[in-house]
Amino acid sequence: MHEPLYLRWKQWDCRTDCRYHCMLAREEERTKLGDKPVKYHGKWPFRRVYGIQEPVAVALSALNLAIQFHGWVSFFILVYYNLPLRPDKKTYYEYTGLWHIYGILSMNSWLWSAVFHSRDVELTQKLDYSSAVALLGYTLLVAILRAFNVRDEATRVMISAPLIAFVTTHIMYLNFYNLAYGLNVKVCMIMAILQLLIWAVWAGISKHPARRKLWLVVVAGGIAMFLENFDFPPYKGYVDAHALWHATTIPLTFLWWSFIRDDAEFRTSSLLKKVK
């Protein structure tokens, strides 16, 4: 009870605090002997700052959250204020609602990523994993609907139902049966690779004016994804492969929302020509 408030609210009790300081002392001994860092309880030895377990990853997650918010707001302003609306005040762009949900799920995912990297406990781990799986499942769904130009509501429901069922089942498995890290990585990698392939093929066969942006996101996103599997000890106790992956997603997110805005303008222009 005599620990500072910034440590107590992070659940750093005497036992976990002792583990942390013993870990640092042990790593200093290993460094003097010329030995490489090792993992403790399945995690690399990070140096915390004011109780924050992985300060660089937290800062980058927060920055990703800010970029997602900026992208979502700019998209909202574009479709509702800068582009023409239908007589019933709805947008001409058929995928407006889907991208709104994407923005909300993305911001939610980065929020829990920041919380998880600030303090790794079972609850924050479950929230981080669940929000990431939900986001990846949804982005795979959006990739299918946009690439195949699915606009009919009944068809969208038929395509969405099995994918939503799978993602929901996986999230429930992680939360209530087994928080399996290895299985979750495989599921996330499969969903990420599938949507990258869908976007890549679509960019190759379509004549979309913003296809170069899409190609850049696909190629850079595929390269960045391998940082998740390229595991190495944190540099100076702060920057590891996962933190670097967080850094790469910042410019990719900005570029991705730029493509979404371009797509909205392109589809709106095409539909207005048909109306006239």
Automatic annotation (TrEMBL):
<feature type="transmembrane region" description="Helical">
    <location>
        <begin position="95"/>
        <end position="115"/>
    </location>
</feature>
<dbReference type="InterPro" id="IPR007217">
    <property type="entry name" value="Per1-like"/>
</dbReference>
<keyword id="KW-0333">Golgi apparatus</keyword>
<feature type="transmembrane region" description="Helical">
    <location>
        <begin position="56"/>
        <end position="83"/>
    </location>
</feature>
<feature type="transmembrane region" description="Helical">
    <location>
        <begin position="214"/>
        <end position="230"/>
    </location>
</feature>
<feature type="transmembrane region" description="Helical">
    <location>
        <begin position="127"/>
        <end position="145"/>
    </location>
</feature>
<keyword id="KW-0337">GPI-anchor biosynthesis</keyword>
<dbReference type="Pfam" id="PF04080">
    <property type="entry name" value="Per1"/>
</dbReference>
<keyword id="KW-0472">Membrane</keyword>
<feature type="transmembrane region" description="Helical">
    <location>
        <begin position="183"/>
        <end position="202"/>
    </location>
</feature>
<keyword id="KW-1133">Transmembrane helix</keyword>
<keyword id="KW-0812">Transmembrane</keyword>
<comment type="similarity">
    <text>Belongs to the PGAP3 family.</text>
</comment>
<comment type="function">
    <text>Involved in the lipid remodeling steps of GPI-anchor maturation.</text>
</comment>
<feature type="transmembrane region" description="Helical">
    <location>
        <begin position="157"/>
        <end position="177"/>
    </location>
</feature>
<protein>
    <recommendedName>
        <fullName>Post-GPI attachment to proteins factor 3</fullName>
    </recommendedName>
</protein>
<feature type="transmembrane region" description="Helical">
    <location>
        <begin position="242"/>
        <end position="260"/>
    </location>
</feature>
